[in-house]
Amino acid sequence: MKISLAWKWVIASLLIESLMLTLMVIKNVDQLKNNLSTQTYIRLDEQKILLQSALVAPIAQMDYATIDAILKETKAISTIDYMVVVDNQNNCISSVGWSDCKNLPTVEFDPFSENSLEDERFDTSIPITLFSQTLGKVYLGLSTKFYIQAKEEMIIRSIIIALIELLLSAFLLITVSKWIIKNLVKLTHTANAIALGDYSQRIDLGDSKETLQLQESFNLMAINIEKNIENLKLSNEKEKKLFEKLKSQLEKNYEQDLLLKHQTRMAIIGEMLNNIAHQWRQPLNAITIQLSSLKLKKELDLLEDKDISETADSVMKYANYLSNTIDDFRNFMKVNPQKEHFSIQNCFNKAVEIVSASLKNNDINLDITKSKGELFIDGIMNELTQVFINILNNSKDILNEKNIEHKVIQISFYKQNDKLIVTIQDNAGGVEESIIDKVFDPYFTTKHKSQGTGIGLYMSSKIIHEHFSGEIIVKNEDIEYEKRVYKGAKFYIILPI
Amino acid sequence: MKIKLLFLSILFAINCLSAEKNPITIGIAPHSSTRVILESHQDLRLFLEKFFHRPVEILTAKNFSEFTKRSDKGTFYDLILTSPNLAVLAQRLGGYTPIMTYKKGLSTIILSKDKNILKKDKFPLHVVGLDPVSFPTLDAQEWLSKQGFKEKEKVEYTYTSATDSAISILMNNHADMIIMSLPNYLKLINKKNKALVHVIYKSEPKPSRIYLAKDKNKITLKQWQKALDAFSKSVEGKHHLEITKLEGFKKISPEDLDNLDEIVDKTMKRLYN
User: Fold this and answer.
1) Containing structural domain, residue A386
2) What's the ipTM?
3) Of these four, A171, A317, B4, B65, which has the most CB atoms within 10 Å of its CB?
4) Hey, is the C-beta of A181 within 8 angstroms of any chain B C-beta?
């Protein structure tokens, strides 16, 4: 069986009160005992003085009739049970209420000791002295009935008062608990309604000070909840819209990314085709010249078998060269390349092989400063090769555009702390300071539409940052070439080892 | 030597164990109230307790008649201190021997608030005496009789147990005259009251209160004589004299009381008739 909170409170309060009342009754009885004990001693002292005063002279005078009379008169005091006067030899002089003079009672020291309460009498004695002379002694029995009676009365009265108090308390506690619970029930119902979504619910707990405060606080809380739920709904709506927007933007970005990738690939392919074209031009020219020479010799009838054989060998040689060039480009354009541990200089050499023909056609010299030892790094080699190609092509384009007389691209490799650094600088005059921060942005280009897409450096930056966790920066710095100082853009590729 | 010491120790232990605890009783004539008597003889009690190594009790009686009857039986008191007429009776009837008295003689005093009380015509005069058998009372009555104030004609006697009570009676105008001894007059009446009262009669010094003892309660007469002699020379004895204003002690022999026959006869008549 579950006991309600109100009943628990009532029972606990009544138990505590009962305990307190019991303690109070015990304390009162104890206090009564102390008070009556003190009073008994005071009375005894008073009687001691009176008895001494009354008995000194008759004892000294041996006036036993007077002693008898005094004892009889004193015995009229209701609390005195008996009195026995003895001389210094314990001979009984007179007694009232005590028959056996030879067997005198044992003197007790506590008026409410067990013995005193058992025989309802406190046995004591009073010496009769004057000027330090002891004349005799009075044995005295004081009734303890008054204490027993007072104790019983006190206990009964206390129990009645305690019961009345407990009844009143119970009535008060039950009333108060019902009143409190009534409000709690109201609170529970309203809270349940709010929990179920009815935020318009408000509570009315009457007009007492405490409940009014609770009511105000609760209603304020309900209003705030309603407001917050409303705001939350609005926020949800906004968030939903934002999410939709974001989603569409992401889709758009994805598409753009795909487009960018496609464009990048196309740009690379374009670059490659351009490079292939440069690579093929010279052998194709040679083949054309040799075949033309062979044709001319035939028309002039100067053709010999040896010429055919030689020309065929030569054409075969060039055809092989062209075939090798295609293999090289195919390898470079491989899809899903694997990560590998590779030499950064070998990687650069590969890039140079691809763009060397183009550079040569444009009279651009490469000035390479190698590092002391081999520099190795982990990653996809072709991606870094692509970065080098992009920068070299960029330099080539700007050198041609600026029509620099002595064109040069200086490359250096070195290791600094835990980083590998590759610098590539041309002598084309540098990038305008106003746009130097935008060179790595997508679609940003200073070239003519036919030449640039604005994707090369953006892709290079992305590769260095995202695939090599490195950094690529560009600065305008002085460059010395053939004892002349130029200005040029210097790219720093910083790769963590 | 060791055996001797052991024997002595055993004797001493036996002596200690068998020490007399039965109290010595001193009977003092009720010339004052019981409290005054007990107070003024504490020095004697304490001295005798020390002297005999026994408890000492001072007892008195309701009145002289009762005291005399007890003294005369010879069984109540070990030591008696009483007036000369009663001392003679205690000697003759109780078997006590007079040992010591005070140097200052016992004069009888009659006091009144009215200086000319004896010249007044208003009779009978109410006179309060100590007891019919007390020495000052008998002496004063004899003098008044000689002055023509016969009992039941011009004077009427009532008696009180103690001198201090008689003083109160006089001061409260419940009596015309009171009779007392000179030592009580000196000791009990304060200066203020002395100024209010007049001495109507003062007798020639008569023998003072007398200490009497007998072989009783395991104390011999000789021991009593030694004890009282020692008391008379002790600090306690001096203090006692200061309180009682009785100047000094002197030894007394049975023969010294021989000239008191007349007053003794009167006493006997009053006691036993």
Assistant:
1) 336-496
2) 0.72
3) B65
4) no
